[in-house]
Amino acid sequence: MSKVSVAVNGKEITADVEDRTLLVHFLRDVADLTATNIGCETTSCGACTVLLDGESVKSCTVLALQADGRQVTTLEGLAGPDGSMSPVQRAFHRNHGLQCGYCTPGFVMAITSLLAENPQPTEAEVRAGLEGNICRCTGYHNIVKAALAAASEAAQ
Amino acid sequence: MSILGTRVIRTEDPKLLTSGGVYVDDLREPELEGAARVTFVRSTVAHARITGIDTSEALAQPGVIAVLTVADMTDFPPPPPAEPVDPDAPPVEGPMPLGGQWSEPLLAVDEVRFVGEPIAMVLTDTRQAGEDAAELVSIDYEPLPPVVGITEALAGQATVFSGTDTNVCQARSGNFDDSVFDGCDIVVEGDISNQRVACLPMEGRAVAASWSGDKLTVWVSTQNAQLGRLILTAIGLPPEAIRVVAPDVGGGFGAKIGVDREAILVAWAAKHTGRAVRWVESRGENLTAMTQGRGQRHHIKIGGTRDGHIQAYQLDVVQDTGAYARMSGFLPSLTVLMAPGVYDIPAVQAGYKVVVTNATPVAAYRGAGRPEAAATIERAVDWFAAEAGLDPAEVRKVNFIRKAQFPFITKTGAPYDTGDYESALDKVLQAAGYQELRAEQARRREAGDVRQLGIGLASYVEITAADAGAGETAKVEVHDDGTATVYTGSSAHGQGHHTAYAMLVTDELGIPMDKIEVIHGDTDLIPDGVGTYASRSLQLGGSAVHKAAIEVKQEAAQKAAELFEAASSDVVLDTESGLWHIAGDPDKSLTWGQVAAAAAGGLIVANVRFTADRPTFPFGSQLSLVEVDTETGKVTLLRHVTADDAGPVLNPVLFEGQRHGGIAQGAAQALCEEVLYDPDGNPLTSSLADYAAITAAELPSFELVTSETATNVNPLGVKGIGEAGTIGATPAVHNAVIDALAHLGVRHIDMPTTPEHVWAAIQAASGK
Amino acid sequence: MIPASFTYHRASSVDEALSMAAQLGEDAKFLAGGHSLLPMMKLRFAVPTDLIDVGRITELSYIRDEGTYLAIGALTRHHEVTTSPLLATQVPLLAHAAGQVGDPQIRHRGTIGGSVAHADAASDLPAVLLALDATFVIQGADGARSVPVGEFFKSIFETALQPGELLTEIQVPKPAVPSAWSFQKFTKRAIDWAIVGVAVQLSPGGATPRTPRGTPDGEESVSGVLSPGGATPRTPRGTPDGEESVSGVQGAHVALINMGLTPLRASATEAALASGAPVADAAALAAEGTSPGSDLHASAAFRAHLARVLVRRALQEAGGR
User: Fold this and answer.
1) What is the ipTM of this complex?
2) What 3-state DSSP class applies to A118?
3) What is the CA radius of gyration of chain B?
């Protein structure tokens, strides 16, 4: 057991946890933020993607202890202080980028990070950048459209 | 102007995009406070007798509440005695377990029949302790010879069930008679595999259950809460004592129809221990113990004239149902029904056998028996066209059922309602620039390019709402505050029903979308309903909502007339403003709230069960353009163009989304996905590192063309779109790959068209 | 899904990490980015009793120009390697290959040292470092030692690292012609591990300028631009396949991914090139001396075939830049 303290969506969450606690379980079970989902155990599906110090990571493959003292952003922390959706969230809504919603937080966070690093990606770059996220409902068409729309909105 | 047919973004999304969906593992219901966690202990061998289960070491671990095996199930009512299934009786073809000597237990009794079959349940205080304790449960196996794959199952040297001398658990003869091929200039005969795939919803199975002493509440990731409740009565409770709730469900695709044995066990464990319990499967469990899709092998014979008229078609299906026949002969019965597809073929003979194997049970997966039919008839037509040296588009057109022939009953007895197959194909050919593509293909062939182009076509038809007679329920209420609530028996798991049904209500009643709440999936609130599968929801559930809304409007008109002291024929509803007034007197109006307030109980309500007397038959054409690297076998999907016709489109946003998702899953089966076992029956694709689920990097954006041919089977004129994209995409992509290599003499490659499969076909065709 | 229990320790310096390892014994493992080790622990294929997290030793994350070579700290993340302007100009083969490892999320966490120390036979970077003649700096209780790449990879998941030792730096000699590289990673899907992969560096470290040579049939070398990560060649213009040669090959290094238990040099190909054979002939020897496996992704025979095709394409691309 160790004490872990992570700044999640700007709020300090401190708890004593088993050393083997994965960041995704810390977020879901300790911080009680359940938007981040678990879809596999082989780091394959990306449903658990969050931002760690601003960069997308698969929180199932990070120990909570590795995030000790760091900043984590989950889907719940993306909206503005007035509750307004971020450009990526808005783009998903407008472009029907989600159906069942289970993979969605992971995609939104992955795209948020992708656009931070590459603000005007081509479609090919978006698709390659999402190779680590699996969706079963949408066929990716509208997810890609949403990513490009968010990029386009930011460019204006 | 009606909202129907316009692009409306989803009402479901704001919550999903900001705080996230609430799936079973997210639930924080007070009844689940302190719930025990369930971890299953599963078979690690494909076929064995269980000679011992030692739970002592697990029980000694801290935090372990119980370790349950079949020996603990003494409070479970015994199943009815297993009467042998009469092999001569006509096959039971509903999606019901076969039963009899093929019965499936809940926890394994004395034999295990697939890797992943549940043997024991460990209940722990914490999630973490569950895996630790499960590892310590020790099972002794006496291995039995495994039956791996269809060939071994048919050979019957080993049997999955020790009480039987065969693995064929069901059959329906095709009455094959080769004389129908007499006079055919060209006859093609071959074997076509439709491989096992994983359904792979991103949320796996999950169940939570709480027993209050007289009521069992079960939260489950399901497509059918009411059917789930019925199945759960097996634990010895009447339906009234069970409440089933489907919270947000992270995808289903047919694999979450009703509830399965793990859900029954979790529910029973709650009642047995008196403790709330919750279970979430791992992806490894999901890929081995959730039902899988397809798994058919086809032998076909297709014959016709030199100018492309198909005269006869034989389809012989063997269905691998896995260790347990959960859906009897249901899937291949639909394959056989839809065998001739969109073609008017004079002689059609189709039959099937169902075999058990020591593998994961097979059940419905997006299309459920129909993709297999389309994949094969479309492959057969292309193969026939290649042998005849004819353009596959022309061969299709020559053989289509013509628009004027509808309604049309096929030789297999399928009652097609409406269709316009030529138009759908023409639209796709035009949108794709078919002639230009063929020209580019020819240029590359001439030049001997390493990368060759393949153009694949698929024209398909499928059956939706096959259980039209079961119908769907809807209750529409308007409250005294002017808001409305819709209770639907449908059960969305991503399809956007809340948006669609709210559109139907707003269209009829003029109540704004943001004042309409749609509720589904709770048997306390909706005791009677069927749920979502078979692409039935809009046509049955939507028609029910539509009808209920009309009844609400009629009742409200009466009430408004009373309030106006006028004749009800003088009262009108302005659906733009949502206000009631006397015809010709817009200044005096009543709001919905006022009208409802005056009704009994302050509520206007209508309760409807809508049934249709027939299923419907959406159809379409798809064209796939691939590039094949002839040195490495790698296939790249360049373009995919479709016209998928399910009648008038209620909401193009939702409609397109269903097509996109279907196309991706269909393309995935053609390109890369396959469940594989080793010769001992051990699964080789039991993780997402090994199972080749398709990603955005493998797919292009899709080009969708509009085609709307209404049906007269329901008041909305709609058919179902949920599965159509998948059904058309698999053969389009598959045909494209083979088309790319046709000039090298390749006539068929089994799916998936992995680089090695493709390369091997090229080698074989060139005699290497 | 959940690893077996272990005790977590955090080291703030290399010395502290080494002393912790010495105290905790062989069942303790170092944790860097965690994207090789944690996946194995989550499936309980690895069950260390202790983890020594070295991920915060920031002094081990760097990319420095040391004149004749680039020094890369073992804890440098793949994302840093692939976006490094220094590597983009000096060792583009490495910069490019690091961008092919896993997916963006994995590249934000995984480190070059962690990946190399894990030594999966299907890994991208070990073969690249083999093609580049890298040297590995290892710190142990008795001090530092350098191991050349040819002695570092022993078998699958087995390297020259002894228990308690920490890889701290990877030294990559600067290729004389940095742009003469190619990386061919053959996969079914973009996210997959390489079924077979090829890393080529012409004129690797040694700073010998490229000397154009006449070729037996007077053909020029071929230009061809590949899309990153794919294996999609343009058919050489005007040259029937097999007639090109790579001009001016000075010690071409051709390394293979997943053609054996470790990354391998295609030495028969290299020798053929050195003696003036055309590219196609040399590439036909690519599988010699290799032992590719058969698994659910590919048979050994198909892998051997791919090696031949991909080596040919890699040589054409590297020679054409």
Assistant:
1) 0.98
2) coil
3) 27
Encode chain C (321 residues) as per-residue pLDDT tens digits.
999 999 999 999 999 999 999 999 999 999 999 999 999 999 999 999 999 999 999 999 999 999 999 999 999 999 999 999 999 999 999 999 999 999 999 999 999 999 999 999 999 999 999 999 999 999 999 999 999 999 999 999 999 999 999 999 999 999 999 999 999 999 999 999 999 999 999 988 743 333 333 333 333 333 332 223 333 333 333 333 443 444 445 679 999 999 999 999 999 999 999 999 999 999 999 999 999 999 999 999 999 999 999 999 999 999 998
Among candidates A41, A63, A129 on the partner chain, residue whose Cβ is nearest the Cβ of C104: A129
Most C CBs within 10 A among A2, A21, A42, A63, hence the mutation to make, goes to: A63
Alpha carbon distance C213, A11 (integer Å): 66
Q: Where are the domains of chain A?
A: 2-75, 87-155
Helix (H) or strand (E) holding B509: helix B497-509
pLDDT tens digits for range B289-329? 999 999 999 999 999 999 999 999 999 999 999 999 999 99
C-chain residue closest to B632, CA distance: C306
pLDDT tens digits, one per residue of B319-366: 999 999 999 999 999 999 999 999 999 999 999 999 999 999 999 999
Residue among B687, C272, B255 at smallest CA distance from A44: B687
| Token reading at C51 | 């983890």
The CATH classification number of A87-155 equals: 1.10.150.120
* CA closest to A49 among chain C residues: C105
The average pLDDT across B382-393 equals 96
User: What domains, with CATH codes, occur in chain C?
Assistant: 7-53 (3.30.43.10), 62-173 (3.30.465.10), 181-320 (3.30.390.50)
Can you tell me whether residue C264 is helix, strand or coil?
strand
Q: What is the pTM of this model?
A: 0.96
d(CA B700, CA B729): 13
Tokens found for residue B581: 């007034």
Helix or strand run (H / E) with residue A109? helix A104-117
Q: Is A16 helix (H, G, I), strand (E, B) or coil?
A: strand
- The answer to whether the peptide bond before residue C173 is cis (omega within 30 degrees of 0) is no
Are C189 and B695 within 8 A, CB to CB? yes
* Chain C, window 197-236: residues with a beta carbon less than 8 angstroms from a chain B beta carbon: 231-233, 235
Q: Tokens at residue A27, please? A: 């977020």
Q: Locate tokens 């590459």: which residue? A: A118
Residues B502, B500: Cα–Cα separation, whole Å:
5
The dotted CATH code for A2-75 is: 3.10.20.30
Q: Give the integer Cα–Cα distance in Å for B660 and A142.
A: 8
- In chain B, which among 669-688 make CB contacts under 8 A with chain A? 687-688
What are the counts of helices (DSSP H) followed by strands (DSSP E) for chain A?
A: 5, 5
Residue ranges of domains in chain B, CATH in brackets: 292-406+415-464+615-765 (3.30.365.10), 468-610 (3.30.365.10)
Distance CA B94, CA B502 (A): 33
Q: What residue in A sits closest to C227 (Cα-Cα)?
A: A124
Q: How far is CA B105 from CA B43, B48, B116, B377, in A?
A: 14, 15, 14, 37
Those residues whose C-beta lies under 8 Å from the C-beta of residue A110, and which sit 6 or more positions away, are: A46, A49, A56, A129, A130, A132, A133, C104, C105
Q: How many residues does chain B have?
A: 768
Q: Which tokens is B374 given?
A: 């389309």
Q: Cβ(A55)–Cβ(A113) under 8 Å? A: yes
User: Is A55 within 8 Å of C108 when comparing Cβ atoms?
Assistant: yes
Instruction: Report phi then psi at B577, rounded to 5.
Output: -95, -15
pLDDT in tens, B491-539: 999 999 999 999 999 999 999 999 999 999 999 999 999 999 999 999 9
With an 8 Å Cβ cutoff, are A32 and B661 in contact?
A: no
